[in-house]
Amino acid sequence: MALMGVQLVVSLLAASIMQKMAPHCSFARWLVCNGSLFRFKHPSEGELCALAGKQMPKPNRRDRRQNGESKPLTVPKDIDLHLEKAPVNVIDALVLRFFLEYQWLVDFAVYAAGVFLFTECYYSVVDASKEVNIGAIWCVLTVLFSLKTLHTLMGHYFRSEEGGERSVCLAFGFLSLLVAMLVLVVREDYLEFGLESGFSSLFDSLEIFAKQQGYAQWSIPVTKLTVKLGLAAVCAYIGALLAFPGLRLAQTHLDAVQMNSDRPLIQILLHMSFMSPVIVLVLWVKPIARDFLANAPMGKTSVTIVPSAVFDSMRLWIIMALCVLRLALTRYHLQAYLNLAQKWVEQMKKEAGRIAAIDIQRKVTRVFCYLTVVTLQYLVPVLLILFSTLALKALGDFSWSTSAEETPGVTPALVLPTAAPVLPSGLDDDEEGVEDMEEDIQATVARLSETFTALRSVLTPLFFRGFFAFLTWWVAACQVISSLFGIYFHQYLMQN
C-alpha cells in the first residue's frame, strides 16, 4: 500500500499553509469581521446622565472613605436610550471568549474540505484503491475536533456557579440516552443505518485477523448488545453536547425571522434551514424515503421516481445542499443574536423603576462577548453533519454519481508482510550514514503501511457505512429535539 504518495504530500502542504497563513488570511476571522456584522456599543455614564436629565455626579472622596465605595449611578429604566452601532472588526474580535478555538476549528475545517476535494479528484483520475484516503482522515479529525470544542463549551457551563446550565445538559443527556436505546432496537426495515451488518463484518474480520496472528482460540469478549450499550452512552454524551446549540439555534432562528419580516425569500430560506435536520432524519427512514421513491404508489400501479441503486448518492447530495444552505445563512443568525442588546434595551424601557448604569453597560457588553460562543454553537453541529457525511462517502465506498453501486463486501484480513532490511556492504562512513537513514525511513513507512493494512482489513466499508450513517442521523436527531424544545421555550414559556 503506497503511503508516501501524492495524498500525503498534499496533506502536509495543507497543514503547513494553514499554520503559516492563519495570522494573515483566516476564513473564520473573515466570517465574523468582514464588516457585515454590527455590534452595539454600551452607553457611557455621561450619556446615561444626559438622557436622564441630570449632571454627571462628581466623586466625593469623603463619602468614599466613610462608606468604602461610592454610590452607584442609577437612571430611570424608561429613558430614551438608543444604542450606537459599530461594525465588528478584528481588534474587537481578538478579545472575545473562545475566539482562538473558533478560528482554529473553522480554518481546519476549511482546509479539511480542500484536502477532501483534492482526494476525490485524485481518486477519480488515478486508481488509488490501495492507498490510504488522506481526505477521509481529515474528515474524521474534523469530527473529533468539533466534539472536543463542544466539550469545552459544555465544561464552561458546568463550571457556572448557578448550576442551571449543568442541569439542562444532564437532562438532555438522559433524554438522549433513552431515545438512543429506543432507536438502536428498531429493525433495519425501518431505519436503514446498516449497523447490524457493520457489526457482523467487524466481528468476523476481528476473528480472522486474530487467527492469522496466532490466536487460534481467541474469541470476541463482547457481544453486539454490549457494543450497542456503549454506543447509546456515546449518543447520550453527544446529546448533552448539542443541548445548548439547539436551544441557541431556536432563539436566533426566531429573531432572524422577525428581523427579516420584510424579506419573504430570506424567511423561506431560514425556515428551510431550520427544518433541514428533519429532512436528514427522514432520509434514513426506509418506508418514507427509499421505499417510497423506488415504488411510489400511483393508483393501482407503482412508479419508480428514484431507483434504489442511486438513492444513496442522492442522499449524500441532499445532505450536502442542506449543510451549504445553513452555512450560507450564518450571518443572519449571528446578527439576530447581536440584536439582543437593542432588544433588551427596548424591553427595559417598558419597565418601571431605576437601574444601575453599570448593569446596562454589562448587559450590552455581555451580548458581544459571547459572539464567538454563539458562532461555535451554530457552526459546529453543521460541521459534524457535513464531515460525517463526507467520511461516510469516502470510507463507505459510496459514489457521487448516480450509477448503480455494488454493496461492499467484507475485506478479508491480510497477512502482514515482514520487511527485511537490506544491509549495505563496501561503503564509507558517510554513505553508510545516508543508507542507515534511508533504511530507517523505509522501515518506518513499512510499519505504518502494515498498521494501515491491518486497520483496513478489520474496519471494513460495511462497518464505516453503518457507523457514520448512524452518527450523521443522530447529530440531526439531537438538533431536532433540542431546537424544537427551544422553540417551545422561547415562544410559550418565556411569554407566560
Which helices and strands occur, and which strands form pairs?
Blueprint (H helix, E strand, L loop, with lengths): L5 H16 L5 H7 L4 E4 L3 H8 L8 H7 L6 E3 L7 E4 L2 H5 L4 H27 L8 H25 L5 H21 L10 H18 L11 H18 L1 H17 L4 H11 L1 H8 L6 H5 L1 E3 L2 E3 L4 H21 L1 H9 L1 H10 L4 E3 H13 L1 H25 L33 H30 L2 H33 L3
Antiparallel strand pairs: 1-3, 2-6, 4-5
Helix pairs in contact: 1-6, 6-7, 6-19, 7-19, 8-10, 9-21, 11-12, 11-16, 11-19, 11-21, 12-15, 13-15, 13-21, 15-19, 16-19, 17-18, 19-21
Description of the molecule:
Belongs to the TMEM161 family. Keywords: Glycoprotein, Membrane, Signal, Transmembrane, Transmembrane helix. This is Transmembrane protein 161A. The chain crosses the membrane at residues 135-155, 167-186, 225-244, 265-285, 367-392, 467-489. Residues 1-28 form the signal peptide. It is a single chain. With 496 residues, the protein is mainly alpha-helical. The protein has one domain. The chain has 21 helices and 6 strands. The protein has a two-stranded antiparallel ribbon. A hairpin with a 2-residue loop joins β4 and β5. α6 (99-125) runs parallel beside α19 and α11 (243-259) packs antiparallel against α12 (264-274). The N and C termini lie far apart (64 Å).
